[in-house]
């Protein structure tokens, strides 16, 4: 009766046998069709398994990478949360302050420009139509302009303080 080496075939494929054992398996396979068929089956199974494992490995790697990146993002985010919140509040405060002072300044400058334009128009109109009022118009213009500049300077000083 022939002694089959079925239980040594997978060890043979995995390269776990020593030189003598390997030689014995190879000699036996050459003569035994049953073990040869089994070895081929094992080879196919092994390559199927390797392919399946290879196919599974990519998503597994991906998952690990995704989890790693999430962890890497989460940990510093949690650690810097307080700092980030403080920074955000600071930016927000400065932003609101800048916006308010800016809009006030813009309004004031816009108003001054409109006032100046109106003054120039009114002055020229008055000067052309009523020459008598020329002196008064100029003085009035200067007074209003001075008042505007004074209020602007006061506002700038208030903003600075
Ligand atoms: Zn055999």
TrEMBL record:
The source organism is: Paenibacillus durus ATCC 35681
Q: TM segments?
A: 83-106, 126-152
* InterPro entries with a match to the protein in the record: Anti_sigma_zinc_sf, Znf_put
Q: Taking every annotated instance into account, which residue ranges of this chain make up the domain Putative zinc-finger?
A: 5-36
**Keyword Transmembrane listed:** yes
UniProt name for this protein: Anti-sigma-W factor RsiW
One Pfam entry name: zf-HC2
Keywords (alphabetical) are: Membrane, Transmembrane, Transmembrane helix
User: In which family does this protein belong, per the annotation?
Assistant: Belongs to the zinc-associated anti-sigma factor (ZAS) superfamily. Anti-sigma-W factor family.
